[in-house]
Amino acid sequence: MTVATRSPGTHGPRVRSGQKAPRRPVNWGRVVAWAALIVLLIVTIFPFYWMLRTSLSNNRALAAEAGSPLPADLTLGAFERVLGMATTEEALAEGGSGASVNFWLYLRNSIVVATVVTIGQVFFCAMAAYAFARLRWPGRDKVFFLFLTALMVPPIFTTLPNFILIRDLGLLNTFAGIVLPTLFMTPFAVFFLRQFFVGLSREIEEAAMIDGAGHARIFFRLIIPMAAAPITTLSILTYINAWNDYMWPLLVGQEENVRVLTVALGVFRSQTPQGSPDWAGLMAATLIAALPVMILFAVLGRRVVNSIGFSGIK
Amino acid sequence: MRRTRVRIAAGAVAVPLVVAACGGGGGGDASADGEITYWLWDANQLPAYEACADAFHESGTDVRVTIEQYGWEDYWDQVTTSLVGGTAPDVFTNHLSRYPQFAAEDQLLAIGEYVERDGIDTSIYHDGLAELWVGQDGQRYGLPKDWDTVAVFYNEEMLADAGLTPEDMAELDWNPDDGGSYEEVIAKLTVDENGNRGDEPDFDPDNVDVYGIGLNSAGEGFGQTEWSMYAFSNGWTHTDQNPWGSEFNYDDPAFVETIDWWRGLIEKGYMPSFEMADAGVSMMEQYGAGNYAMVTEGSWNVSAYVDLEGVDTGLAPTPVGPEGERASMFNGLADSIWAGTDEPEAAWEWVKFLASPECQDIVAEHAVVFPAIEESTERAVDAFAEKDIDIAPFTVHVDEETTYLAPVTDEWAEVSAIMGPTMDSIVSFSSDTDALTEANEQVNALFE
Amino acid sequence: MATQVVPKRAAKASGAVSGRRRRFGDLRVALVFLFPAALGFTVFYLWPTLRGFYLSLTEFSLLGDAEFVGLANFERLIGDPLFWNSLRVTVLYVVINIGVQTVVALALAVLMHRLTTSVTIRGLVLLPYLVANVVVALVWFWMLDYQLGVVNQILDWIGLGRISFFGSETWAIPTIALVNVWRHMGYTALLIFAGLQMIPKYVYEASAIDGASEWRMFWSVTLPLLRPIMALVLILSVIGSFQIFDTVAVTTSGGPVDATRVIYFYIFELAFERFDFGYAAAISVVLFLILGGVAIAQLRMLRAGESDLS
């Protein structure tokens, strides 16, 4: 790529095409760069379109119109099947399995799990971060270092014994079993918030103390509001992770009443009614599974985007 | 994707179908009561067993059965994780290749005492079926529910187009050298994109329109519907003795030449590649779409194939092999009770009912599988006949005593873990059949 | 770790202040604040870690009691071709995944940085990251299907011929690696993008005045200044990359042959499908040691990067 020089700052290519520069030569470097960016964006977006296209297709027609960019035999049948709104006959007619699937239930389960984990984890970790960042007590840094080392332990290493623990507690196939291991803390969350709390100004806190405020009051009234931005960021990240988790709920939450969306999708995938998967139904199900997080993103998108670098680098 | 697993039931629905088993009845003074859960994997059989449950509930028992069904690919994961987690179903459909390991881990209830106490006559079942469920420790871990064999399913219209008749199909012979008349038929049924047939000089094996024979999977170490009928007819068996063999024969020349011939069909363009078999369209759908002219399949799938729209399916027995006989694997399922059940008596009531003529007659009338009880099988034959299906190609093996019992052995999960990848790599041509020698050594090392 | 510098400094400062305080400082309050997290840490991190080490020395089917067998599991592991295969496959995955991901993400970040300030574009780029691994795996599994997949339709149409992406031993790992590149590239690009924003504008202005081309600026300005951020991004992504499981579990289940039997999946299979929990624990101990080694090596690298920056 030989790229022409570009004057820095705000000018350069954005100079108004007026009388001043009537025949500005096309900046091929920029064209190529834009083309590359657009290609990457298409690669990013296309699978989403294909999910949508397939989910709006009739499963039986998919094979015949495998290459068509439009839905094959447009129908909402796949969504009806997945949400349990179609009768067995209707489902079979469109190449579904006829089995009762109920993604409403799995959706509810996912929401319960992700919400509980997020609230618990963020709150408890904020408390711990406060103890590590704002309180003085002997052995503090050693304990913090111990917490940090947990970052090094590969999750599978603790997953195996944790499974036994949850089993022995009789918590298999309960929400408690699914949420407990991440409800109280993750090393990352403690670490992330502590970094913030350390940086907060001590003066306000001390002023509050002189006014007679206790630690609880300082924590709730001062620290949490001052750290609202990083707490929100952490909450979003935690929510996404909890929502997308697969292995743990697969192990401890197989039963239908606590089965979350990711696990349900895996099960749905292995369902082969008289043969190949119900692709249209599967794509409808994946869209449903992806939707809540996308909505969250649409609402809080700017914050997420802007916080990413922050969370990684600080 | 669990395609590497042996597919017993293609008609499989993974999501549990909870069948409300709130039948009528009530009252009665049966000794057992309680609520139990029963698992099975074949969606095709679900209606039959629902009907059994209804009949059971009406029989005056206080036991209430809830049936849950998971697709084959999911079923064994569900069973193992639920055993591990202590949440297994009270009663579940068990497979010959799986139960020895469960028994060895003390997960199955030995039911010999119950059988004796209640005077169950195990001679009503087809020969050999009941004995299969007695473990190496001499304990009984299940009562037989059904049996199955393998046959050739073909597209009648394509057969006629190739100038062949159903009578031709009934008299085929096979050998591992040139495939015999069986391979000739497969070649004739294969058509390339220019309309040339597989036995014509202009045939283009790289651009095939209709394959003579379909491919489901590489068959792992089991090969039930894939290659076992050829290997058996070539004088081969999985193990030195069955049940409870401890020496496997995957390196036997009779097996190696069978596999060489079988995968050779891919090179000749008569059978689809492993990649196609592994893709997202099943063998049945390919067959239904007219891409395969024939397939080798198990009796449990007859109805599903016959019900395919737009295709008329005929049945033929497996070919006569070098030993002068046809062959088919003879597999039988049974219902086992989980050792950890809270309701052993209730579970036993249900198992007893499942294994009784009453229930097996109900299953027979649904014409999906062959019940284990001989007399019920007769009924099933009639029920199939009513659906215009002549299932003689399956029963011929029982009549002519050309059945080979499915291998029953400890450590099947470990055997599969070795043989699954090995067979995949052979059928996909990434290794040669020499790989069987090493694999066999590994398998045999498991039993030392 | 860059972060550890901060607490020490903070601790020193606070030490000076707390001279007049009681010896235990805020210990009582701290215990209250720390209690839930400490409970979670002890029960779900510390205890299972210790127990994991113990279980690796046992024969344990999960059904009976664990039986102590010393180092037998580790001896078995040395002679287990499937273990070595899983390690090889995992490393192959990590190399492809991280290699491609880093290059693509860097390109994406630089393009966004030099071309646009649009938050919408940055949001679009992040979309795949918001979707679960399972969903991503299934969507690509469908798009790459040998017969019906749109990608193979296109390949066929162009005349390149179909590729059995998930079904061939050669393609399976690269395919899974690239699918996960797709999910992570936007996120990684945004991490790098944030690093780019920290590079002062005048650096670019200065080199532009010197007549440097964009291409040269990338090599002489952007890349050197980005080194510490790249190192950090690598640490985050390599460790995560070793944990490949979800994609394999819902697509290939370790096949074809053993081509995608990555270490996480092998452990999972052994523990929960083959009643071989002790051995699974032993393999996870080895994985633990490997990842520990990787992390330490990378921390060294990061330190080198930091000193370079200052």
What does this structure look like?
The complex is a heterotrimer of chains A (314), B (448) and C (310). Chain A has 314 residues and is mainly α. Chain A contains 15 helices and no strands. In chain A, helix 5 packs across helix 12. Chain A is globular, with a radius of gyration of 26 Å. The two termini of chain A are 34 Å apart. The N terminus and C terminus of chain A are likely disordered. The N terminus of chain B is likely disordered. In chain B, strand 1, helix 1 and strand 2 form a beta-alpha-beta unit. Chain B is built from 19 helices and twelve strands. In chain B, the strands form two sheets. In chain B, strands 1, 2, 3, 4, 10, 11 and 12 form a seven-stranded mixed beta sheet that branches. With 448 residues, chain B is α/β, with parallel strands linked by helices. The N terminus of chain C is likely disordered. Chain C has a two-stranded antiparallel ribbon with strand order 1-2. Chains in contact: A-B, A-C, B-C. At the B-C interface, helix 2, helix 11 and helix 18 of B face loops of C.
Keywords:
A: 314 residues, mainly alpha, MetI-like fold, disordered C terminus, B: 448 residues, alpha/beta, D-Maltodextrin-Binding Protein, domain 2, 2 domains, seven-stranded mixed beta sheet, five-stranded mixed beta sheet, 12 strands, globular, disordered N terminus
Sequence-ordered SSE layout with sheet pairings:
The complex is a heterotrimer of chains A (314), B (448) and C (310).
Chain A: H1 28-55, H2 59-62, H3 77-82, H4 88-93, H5 103-134, H6 140-149, H7 155-168, H8 175-183, H9 187-199, H10 202-210, H11 215-226, H12 228-244, H13 247-252, H14 261-270, H15 279-313
Helix pairs in contact in A: 1-15, 5-8, 5-9, 5-12, 9-12, 10-11, 12-15, 14-15
Chain B: E1 33-40, H1 46-58, E2 62-69, H2 72-85, E3 91-94, H3 99-104, H4 112-117, H5 129-132, E4 143-148, E5 150-155, H6 156-161, H7 166-170, H8 180-189, E6 191-192, E7 208-213, H9 228-233, H10 253-267, H11 274-278, H12 283-288, E8 292-298, H13 302-306, E9 313-316, E10 328-337, H14 344-354, H15 357-365, E11 370-371, H16 374-386, H17 392-399, E12 403-405, H18 412-427, H19 435-445
Parallel strand pairs in B: 1-2, 1-3, 7-8, 10-12
Antiparallel strand pairs in B: 3-10, 4-10, 4-11, 5-8, 5-9, 6-7
Chain C: H1 2-17, H2 27-55, E1 58-59, E2 67-68, H3 72-78, H4 81-115, H5 119-130, H6 133-143, H7 150-158, H8 169-197, H9 201-209, H10 214-241, H11 246-250, H12 263-272, H13 277-309
Antiparallel strand pairs in C: 1-2
Helix pairs in contact in C: 3-13, 4-8, 4-10, 5-8, 6-8, 8-10, 10-13, 12-13
Subcellular location (chain A): Cell membrane
Domain ABC transmembrane type-1 (chain A): 107-300
Organism (chain A): Phytoactinopolyspora halophila
